[in-house]
Design a protein that fits this description.
With 62 residues, this protein is an all-alpha fold. It has two helices and no strands.
Length: 62
């Protein structure tokens, strides 16, 4: 398997920062599905798949 290029390593590990604020905008369902598909492929503790995700859609009530 080839190593990731330096720009990818920079973005993922060397220059990554903790997220502190939410933006007031929607995330497309396709993006959420893509993230969930990637997360389920990650390494797990003793291959027991401990990761759990819940996606909720909130609607403003006027």
């Amino acid at each position: 398997m080839p190593a990731l290029p330096d720009p990818a390593l920079d973005r993922l590990f060397r220059h990554a920062r903790t997220h502190r604020w939410w933006q007031d905008r929607s995330i497309p369902d396709e993006t959420l599905r893509a993230v969930a598909d990637l997360a389920k492929l990650g390494p797990t503790s003793a291959n027991s798949s401990p990761g759990r995700s819940v996606f909720e859609e909130f609607c403003a009530i006027a």
